[in-house]
Design a protein that fits this description.
Largest sheet: 5 strands, parallel
Strand content: 15-25%
Number of helices: 9
Helix content: 40-55%
Order of helices and strands: EHEHHEEEHHEHEHHEH
Bound molecules: 2'-deoxycytidine-5'-monophosphate
Shape: globular
Oligomer: single chain
CATH architecture: 3-Layer(aba) Sandwich
Radius of gyration: 17 Å
Amino acid sequence: MKTVNIAIDGPAGAGKSSLAKGLARCLGYTYIDTGALYRSVAYEVLCRNISPNDVEQIKQILPEVKVSFRHVDGVQRVFVNGEDVSEKIRTNEISSAASIVSAIPEVRSFLLDLQRNIAKEQNIVMDGRDIGTVVLPDAAVKIFLTASTQDRAKRRFEEQKDTEHAVSYEEILNSMLERDKNDSERDIAPLKPAADAILLDNSGFQPNETLDSVLKIVGSRINV
Ligand code: DC
């Protein structure tokens, strides 16, 4: 049976994962967070005291990095070589390292098959930077979600402020600007909307307003 794939791309903090999770719940599809895959590679790189810029060493360790998603008590968790890293990959240090390692072509091709295989097996909502352009060019619906840099940094700040990873708004804003630059200016699979993506700027939206808008778009494109 052919599976239905929905691609959500956009910069950090645009609300892709909240949207993709909500959409997957409403449609009964599986949510796949591809950023978690790049974060997992970055986690393994840092655990081995390798610099995220050390392309040669990173290429060598890739075959030893086994990343998988598993459901534990109904919640999707990410595992690297059997270790549950779901929370550990959310630090700012990992965010910056993930942005650097994701520009390495071998890292991208290493994760490409994994993402495509998951999409072949089940109906999914997948979010990332290159889902509509590279990973799933035939996705039934492609959304490019964005918002102003200030809105995005504010949302990340609110998400993190009561956690052990809390940092100042300014620090989040600066690292977001740097990641936006890395992600959109890299040579391979840069962050950009697919030609057939629907652009949605959700600056000032409440989370459910984004989901409601996208559910209407999805409903007009596929039979749900
Ligand atoms: O979505 P995120 O913030 O968890 O992503 C972490 C990093 O991984 C981000 O800086 C860019 C990279 N990434 C990517 O290059 N391609 C994807 N499909 C998903 C994430």
